[in-house]
Amino acid sequence: MTITVIGRGAEANVVWDAIPGMGALKRKVEVPRELGTGSVEQIQFREQFTLFISEVEFSQDIQLETVLEENTLEVLFCLAGEKQLNLQEETISLQANEGGLFYNHCGSTVKQQFFAGNRVHMVGVFLSPEFLQHYRTEFAESLFSDKDIERKCAISLQSYANQPRISLLLQDIVQFSQKSPFRYIYLEAKALELVSLQLDALLTADQSASEIPDVEVHKLNKARKILQEEYLEPPSILELSRRVFLNEFKLKSGFKHLFGTSVYSYLRDYRMEVARSLLDEGKQKVLEVACAVGYSNPSHFAVAFRKRYGINPGELLKSEDLSKKK
To answer: In which region does residue 41 sit, left (phi positive, over 0), alpha (psi from -120 to 50) or beta (all else)?
Structure first.
């Protein structure tokens, strides 16, 4: 079944509600019962800046076609499930723990394919080039004057499971209490942070790729994957360098250049990300979480966690319990 709409978020018969005190708008679109379950929440903070949070499951294959009325930059993240995007006549499969930037011209048609019985959970931000121009940054000007922008955005599709800051931002967005009077202020700040991180990643990747040979980039990505998979008993720098066939100097310097942090700092931050996710679930005590991420000493774990997030793990656990009770 194919459904066509004109303009991003132009679902029929769904009106926008004003958010008091913000000058922003919101609306929630429910999936018709005959098609499936779930909803799409949209928050338009400004005319050219909209956050959406969707969780849908269709009872039949659905293709949603959207005809864009303006040039649009999309920052998309898939938290669960899978859907296909057809952008500029290229089909991209967006799967769980993947995200990226996508640029589309005014008048183009974006096709989204949803598969029956597949729950798809997405978070995304729609914005226009003009929105970024308000900040008058050199990057914003060069980004949208670049004739190759579609290619650069398309290749930005990547797994965010290995990017602690983005993973935590997405958790914060979907888990923040809907009853909080500050919810929309909070979500706007998080949406802006998501955009800035993705644009920075696009710029950094473009620069890094031109300075590091492709064969070394592949080896460095392999090194990062090994750290993710073996963070409980990580290899030494020497062992890691041998496993990816890079000498220690190239491993350490290349890793920092490509990922913006040292090997040890990345490993520590990744452990803290896993710990934060476990604490957010609220099923384990602090001591159990510390052990789960490789810390035998809970005091050392608490120091590392507080250094990373500015809060003690016990305090975070208590705040999560309180928010759930509310």
So the answer is: beta
